[in-house]
Protein backbone atom coordinates (compact mmCIF):
# COMPACT_ATOMS: atom_id res chain seq x y z
CA UNK A 1 0.00 0.00 0.00
CA UNK A 2 1.41 3.29 -1.08
CA UNK A 3 0.50 6.39 0.88
CA UNK A 4 -0.49 9.45 -1.16
CA UNK A 5 1.19 12.43 0.44
CA UNK A 6 0.32 16.11 0.24
CA UNK A 7 3.40 16.46 -1.96
CA UNK A 8 1.92 13.88 -4.35
CA UNK A 9 -1.40 15.75 -4.34
CA UNK A 10 0.32 18.98 -5.39
CA UNK A 11 2.73 17.11 -7.70
CA UNK A 12 5.90 18.50 -6.11
CA UNK A 13 8.89 16.82 -4.52
CA UNK A 14 9.24 16.83 -0.72
CA UNK A 15 12.35 18.97 -1.16
CA UNK A 16 10.51 21.72 -3.07
CA UNK A 17 10.69 25.27 -1.71
CA UNK A 18 7.54 27.13 -0.62
CA UNK A 19 7.36 29.19 -3.83
CA UNK A 20 7.27 26.01 -5.91
CA UNK A 21 4.65 24.46 -3.62
CA UNK A 22 2.52 27.62 -3.76
CA UNK A 23 2.71 27.74 -7.57
CA UNK A 24 1.77 24.05 -7.76
CA UNK A 25 -1.15 24.66 -5.40
CA UNK A 26 -2.48 27.54 -7.55
CA UNK A 27 -2.14 25.48 -10.72
CA UNK A 28 -3.86 22.43 -9.18
CA UNK A 29 -6.61 24.52 -7.57
CA UNK A 30 -7.41 26.21 -10.88
CA UNK A 31 -7.51 22.90 -12.74
CA UNK A 32 -9.69 21.12 -10.20
CA UNK A 33 -11.97 23.95 -9.06
CA UNK A 34 -15.60 22.74 -9.01
CA UNK A 35 -16.68 25.74 -11.12
CA UNK A 36 -14.39 24.54 -13.92
CA UNK A 37 -14.65 20.81 -13.31
CA UNK A 38 -18.06 19.66 -12.05
CA UNK A 39 -17.72 16.66 -9.77
CA UNK A 40 -14.20 17.63 -8.75
CA UNK A 41 -15.10 18.69 -5.23
CA UNK A 42 -13.12 15.90 -3.57
CA UNK A 43 -9.99 16.60 -5.59
CA UNK A 44 -10.28 20.32 -4.86
CA UNK A 45 -10.78 19.62 -1.14
CA UNK A 46 -7.66 17.39 -1.10
CA UNK A 47 -5.64 20.11 -2.83
CA UNK A 48 -6.84 22.68 -0.28
CA UNK A 49 -5.97 20.35 2.59
CA UNK A 50 -2.50 19.67 1.17
CA UNK A 51 -1.77 23.37 0.76
CA UNK A 52 -3.02 24.30 4.23
CA UNK A 53 -0.97 21.56 5.86
CA UNK A 54 2.25 22.34 3.99
CA UNK A 55 1.82 26.09 4.43
CA UNK A 56 1.03 25.97 8.15
CA UNK A 57 2.89 23.01 9.60
CA UNK A 58 5.22 21.50 7.01
CA UNK A 59 7.90 20.50 9.52
CA UNK A 60 5.49 18.43 11.64
CA UNK A 61 4.03 16.85 8.50
CA UNK A 62 7.50 15.89 7.23
CA UNK A 63 8.31 14.35 10.63
CA UNK A 64 5.08 12.35 10.48
CA UNK A 65 5.95 11.07 6.98
CA UNK A 66 9.41 10.06 8.16
CA UNK A 67 7.95 8.19 11.13
CA UNK A 68 5.51 6.33 8.87
CA UNK A 69 8.35 5.38 6.54
CA UNK A 70 10.47 4.05 9.40
CA UNK A 71 7.52 2.10 10.80
CA UNK A 72 6.80 0.54 7.40
CA UNK A 73 10.43 -0.54 7.06
CA UNK A 74 10.23 -2.21 10.46
CA UNK A 75 6.85 -3.80 9.75
CA UNK A 76 7.82 -7.42 10.33
CA UNK A 77 8.19 -8.11 14.03
CA UNK A 78 8.79 -11.84 13.96
CA UNK A 79 10.52 -13.97 11.30
CA UNK A 80 9.62 -17.66 11.48
CA UNK A 81 10.87 -20.74 9.64
CA UNK A 82 8.15 -23.39 9.80
CA UNK A 83 8.30 -27.19 9.62
CA UNK A 84 5.47 -29.73 9.77
CA UNK A 85 5.75 -30.19 13.51
CA UNK A 86 5.27 -26.43 14.02
CA UNK A 87 1.88 -26.45 12.30
CA UNK A 88 -1.39 -28.27 11.93
CA UNK A 89 -2.76 -29.25 8.57
CA UNK A 90 -2.50 -29.28 5.69
CA UNK A 91 -5.92 -28.45 4.41
CA UNK A 92 -6.76 -27.79 0.79
CA UNK A 93 -9.04 -24.84 0.11
CA UNK A 94 -10.19 -23.01 -3.00
CA UNK A 95 -8.93 -19.42 -3.26
CA UNK A 96 -10.61 -16.39 -4.89
CA UNK A 97 -9.36 -17.44 -8.35
CA UNK A 98 -10.79 -20.95 -7.98
CA UNK A 99 -7.37 -22.56 -7.46
CA UNK A 100 -6.69 -25.30 -4.91
CA UNK A 101 -4.35 -23.94 -2.25
CA UNK A 102 -2.54 -25.86 0.48
CA UNK A 103 -3.05 -24.17 3.86
CA UNK A 104 -1.26 -24.90 7.13
CA UNK A 105 -2.15 -23.41 10.50
CA UNK A 106 0.32 -21.85 12.90
CA UNK A 107 -0.54 -20.73 16.44
CA UNK A 108 0.80 -17.32 17.44
CA UNK A 109 2.17 -16.91 20.94
CA UNK A 110 -1.02 -15.01 21.83
CA UNK A 111 -3.06 -18.12 20.98
CA UNK A 112 -4.65 -17.01 17.69
CA UNK A 113 -4.36 -19.34 14.73
CA UNK A 114 -2.82 -18.00 11.51
CA UNK A 115 -3.64 -19.42 8.07
CA UNK A 116 -0.44 -19.92 6.08
CA UNK A 117 -0.74 -20.58 2.36
CA UNK A 118 2.12 -22.58 0.89
CA UNK A 119 4.04 -20.29 -1.45
CA UNK A 120 2.65 -17.07 0.04
CA UNK A 121 5.37 -14.47 0.65
CA UNK A 122 3.41 -11.60 2.18
CA UNK A 123 3.82 -10.84 5.89
CA UNK A 124 0.98 -12.24 7.99
CA UNK A 125 -0.69 -10.02 10.61
CA UNK A 126 -1.89 -11.80 13.73
CA UNK A 127 -5.52 -10.79 14.41
CA UNK A 128 -5.05 -11.28 18.15
CA UNK A 129 -2.00 -9.12 18.82
CA UNK A 130 0.36 -6.69 17.15
CA UNK A 131 2.82 -9.28 15.81
CA UNK A 132 3.50 -9.42 12.10
CA UNK A 133 5.12 -12.62 10.87
CA UNK A 134 7.45 -13.11 7.93
CA UNK A 135 7.02 -16.83 7.49
CA UNK A 136 9.36 -19.01 5.49
CA UNK A 137 7.70 -22.27 4.58
CA UNK A 138 10.49 -24.83 4.46
CA UNK A 139 10.18 -26.93 1.30
CA UNK A 140 12.69 -29.69 2.17
CA UNK A 141 11.16 -33.04 1.25
CA UNK A 142 12.32 -34.72 4.47
CA UNK A 143 10.08 -33.30 7.20
CA UNK A 144 9.49 -29.73 6.14
CA UNK A 145 6.54 -28.05 4.47
What does this structure look like?
Residues 5-65 form the J domain. This is J domain-containing protein. Pfam families: DnaJ. By secondary structure, the chain is of the alpha+beta class. The protein has two domains: 6-73, Helix Hairpins (Orthogonal Bundle), CATH 1.10.287.110; 78-137, no CATH class. It has three helices and six strands; from the N terminus they run αααββββββ. Strands 1-6-5 form a three-stranded mixed beta sheet, with no helix packed on it. It has a three-stranded antiparallel beta sheet with strand order 2-3-4, with no helix packed on it. β3 and β4 (113-117) form a beta hairpin. α2 packs across α3. The longest helix has 33 residues, at 41-73. The protein is elongated, with a radius of gyration of 23 Å.
Amino acid sequence: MTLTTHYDTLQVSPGADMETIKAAYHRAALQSHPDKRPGGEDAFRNIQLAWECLREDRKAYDEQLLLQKVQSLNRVTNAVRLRKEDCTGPEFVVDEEGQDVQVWYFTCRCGHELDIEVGEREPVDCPGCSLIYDITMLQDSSSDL
